[in-house]
UniProtKB/TrEMBL annotation:
The chain crosses the membrane at residues 115-136. This is Methylase. Keywords: Membrane, Methyltransferase, Transferase, Transmembrane, Transmembrane helix. It comes from Solemya elarraichensis gill symbiont. InterPro entries: DUF938, SAM-dependent_MTases_sf.
């Protein structure tokens, strides 16, 4: 029998992330999480944000683990997991106000990240929010020695992965019709970048 997957980093970062997204999503009703991974974030955020319908998604390899977390939690406002590879042509057809993704961009190659922003821009309504959590580079530099080591480790596993440039991500967001509204410093040299669709 499969053991329920668990990520230490999810337990470590969930409270700081919740502090940022709670006010950010106070007016939202439905959210898609891209790359739900173990499923820990989905059930934690759904429990603490009961006004939100939380839609977990990931590639099919992760669905069994996500389902175990969702079934054990038994929450009425967490759904999925939905099949979503950012490269797939058709994304889940959901009525959304927001999109959230944590620790995803640095494990993707650039083509995948580009596809993610195009997809998010396409499914968000005017005023919809996209919140992206993770480590990012600024002005061509790492923000810490630990991020530099992390990037080296990522590239040793997959040369096409690695920490992405904030400036590049912001251009992708602009091309997808989104404007940066916040850039929040988080523990462990991470950030939450927040874009809004069609913002002035």
């Amino acid at each position: 029998m499969m053991n329920k997957p668990w990520s230490e980093s999810c337990d470590q970062n969930r409270e700081p992330i919740l502090e940022v997204i709670r006010p950010l999503l106070s007016e939202s009703g439905s959210i898609l999480e891209i790359g739900s991974g173990t499923g820990q974030h989905a059930v934690f955020f759904a429990k603490h944000l009961p006004h939100l319908q939380w839609h977990a998604s990931d590639q099919s390899d992760y669905h069994a683990g996500i389902s175990m977390w969702i079934e054990e939690a038994g929450l009425p406002n967490v759904h999925g997991p939905y099949q979503l590879d950012v490269m797939q042509e058709s994304w889940p057809r959901l009525d959304l106000d927001a999109v959230f993704s944590a620790n995803s961009a640095h494990i993707m190659d650039e083509t995948m990240v580009e596809a993610m922003f195009v997809g998010v821009g396409a499914i968000l309504p005017f005023g919809g929010v996209f919140a992206l959590y993770g480590p990012f580079n600024y002005a061509g530099s790492y923000t810490s020695e630990s991020n530099a080591r992390f990037d080296e480790w990522l590239k040793s596993r997959d040369p096409n992965s690695g920490i992405k440039s904030f400036e590049w991500l912001n251009v992708l967001a602009g091309d997808a019709g989104m404007k940066l509204c916040d850039d929040v410093a988080m523990p462990a040299n991470n950030r939450i970048l927040v874009w809004v669709k069609g913002a002035e």
